[in-house]
């Protein structure tokens, strides 16, 4: 069905229900499958984020927003440690390829062994029961999602959520640009990602110019996501009590890559976050009226 509102949707409520039920069905199918369970969990957690983006679009008009947002957030948190360790191993592999002279031999091996041990502990630490609880939580939301309603029917149903999320992305950008703190870049990444989800949901109504923003927002989100993965890896290095020489060898490549990614993100931000919120909403309202009357 796709993660987007359709012109054929009778109203926003119908589109909301259709998208939510489709995403939840896909997440549940992955968790019930026979494939790699780590990948299934990762897929389901990504869909939780997309669903949180979906309900944020209608937030001011959706009376159940707080309940459902909390449900998706808490469900995904049950298995967040599994994803973090897997991402850290992927990042470490890329760093080894980019900095072979610094990370050859025992330095990277010490961290890799520690991360693999942590991942094994994650799988053994009530993984099946946590996965079952995750699945049950999504199943409960699936039953409720079939009955979701928003208070307005036209562009008014999404206008407030679109504007608020975009304003937050711009504010988080300003904060991150000022502080350069990884925690602030992480908050910026979350706000950018939610706005990216909104542009994807509205893609059928967008002009060619607005559609180009979707790709640019996706690229910005990826840059900030990679930066966060590096920050998580640095935190894990501090927690693992590695030999001093190993920790020192890893510190420099991490710092270089984090600086590179944040500078690229700051350079790209004006293209997708430079327009004032009122102007952005006005452009979408114009397209909505043209496409849906």
UniProtKB/TrEMBL annotation:
SMART domains: CHAD. Pfam families: CHAD. InterPro entries: CHAD_dom, CHAD_dom_sf. Residues 9-285 form the CHAD domain. Transmembrane segments: none annotated. PANTHER family: CHAD DOMAIN-CONTAINING PROTEIN, SLR1444 PROTEIN. This is CHAD domain-containing protein. The lineage of its organism: Bacteria, Pseudomonadati, Pseudomonadota, Alphaproteobacteria, Rhodobacterales.
């Amino acid at each position: 069905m796709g993660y987007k509102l359709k012109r054929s949707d009778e109203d926003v409520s119908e589109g909301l229900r259709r998208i939510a039920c489709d995403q939840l069905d896909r997440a549940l199918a992955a968790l019930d499958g026979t494939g790699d369970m780590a990948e299934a969990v990762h897929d389901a957690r990504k869909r939780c984020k997309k669903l949180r983006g979906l309900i944020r679009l209608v937030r001011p008009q959706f009376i159940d927003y707080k309940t459902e947002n909390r449900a998706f957030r808490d469900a995904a948190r049950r298995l967040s440690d599994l994803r973090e360790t897997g991402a850290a191993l992927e990042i470490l592999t890329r760093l080894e390829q980019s900095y072979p002279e610094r990370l050859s031999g025992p330095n990277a091996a010490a961290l890799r062994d520690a991360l693999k041990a942590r991942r094994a502990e994650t799988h053994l630490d009530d993984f099946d029961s946590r996965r079952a609880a995750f699945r049950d939580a999504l199943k409960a939301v699936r039953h409720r999602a079939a009955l979701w309603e928003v208070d307005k029917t036209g562009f008014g149903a999404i206008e407030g959520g679109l504007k608020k999320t975009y304003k937050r992305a711009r504010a988080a950008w300003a904060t991150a640009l000022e502080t350069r703190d990884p925690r602030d870049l992480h908050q910026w990444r979350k706000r950018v990602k939610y706005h990216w989800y909104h542009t994807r949901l509205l893609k059928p109504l967008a002009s060619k110019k607005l559609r180009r923003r979707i790709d640019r927002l996706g690229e910005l989100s990826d840059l900030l996501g990679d930066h966060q993965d590096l920050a998580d890896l640095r935190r894990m290095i501090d927690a693992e009590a590695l030999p001093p020489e190993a920790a020192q060898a890893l510190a420099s490549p991490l710092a270089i890559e984090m600086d590179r990614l944040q500078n690229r993100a700051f350079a790209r931000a004006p293209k997708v976050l430079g327009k004032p919120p009122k102007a952005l909403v006005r452009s979408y309202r114009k397209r909505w009226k043209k496409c849906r009357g």
